[in-house]
Design a protein that fits this description.
By secondary structure, the protein is mainly α. Helix content is 61%, strand content 0%. The two termini are 22 Å apart. The model has no long low-confidence stretch (mean pLDDT 94).
């Protein structure tokens, strides 16, 4: 981590200042499992607090502490909605459970796959887009060089810090993030934290 922070400070003076203001990098990781990806689906487009409450209720509905395909497929979509999931998210998590149970999605092999290969595999699941897989890459597989340009928090942090026009397109953000390679995940974490200072 010291090597990464030294690199980011050297390559980007704006980020250097934010690193000193925010302090040490403290990412919370989750094992790269079915449970982690189902959690990422629940957290889509929700505040952290609301998503956490719904996710705990959903785990309780499934009767397990760590979600698995068998436990998810044993409950109805009505039960999933009663736990707080939207109808869409219930369908998405059920599709993930079905594809995992059938072997189309195999979590055990992701550690040995390239980011693009994982994105291609997981975006075949209903409701899982590039952003969700990028969160899985960052928070579960601990990939150090993911840049989630679709993430509103990352873009807002960059808008504030780099004075990016509100109409800017993805290439403008990506050009700045090029300076962060091969540690774009870590720099993105600092973009999120910059919104809190």
């Amino acid at each position: 981590m010291e090597v990464a922070l030294r690199h980011l400070r050297r390559r980007d003076p704006v980020l250097k200042q934010i690193i000193s203001q925010v302090g040490p990098y403290e990412m919370t990781y989750h094992p790269p499992t079915f449970h982690a990806l189902a959690r990422a689906i629940v957290y889509q487009q929700l505040s952290g607090k609301a998503a956490s409450t719904i996710f705990r209720r959903f785990e309780s509905t499934c009767g397990v502490r760590k979600l698995n395909p068998k436990a998810v497929l044993a409950v109805s979509e009505e039960q999933m909605r009663a736990a707080g999931l939207s109808g869409q998210k219930a369908k998405y998590i059920r599709d993930l459970a079905e594809k995992t149970a059938s072997g189309e999605v195999r979590f055990g092999r992701h550690r040995n796959m390239e980011d693009d290969e994982i994105i291609a595999e997981l975006t075949q699941v209903k409701g899982i887009g590039v952003w969700t897989v990028q969160m899985f890459l960052m928070f579960a597989l601990k990939r150090p060089d993911v840049f989630p340009v679709l993430d509103l928090g990352v873009r807002n942090g960059m808008k504030n810090l780099y004075k990016i026009d509100s109409q800017a397109k993805h290439p403008e953000y990506e050009a700045i993030a090029e300076n962060w390679r091969p540690y774009r995940s870590i720099a993105s974490w600092y973009m999120w934290r910059s919104l809190e200072i």
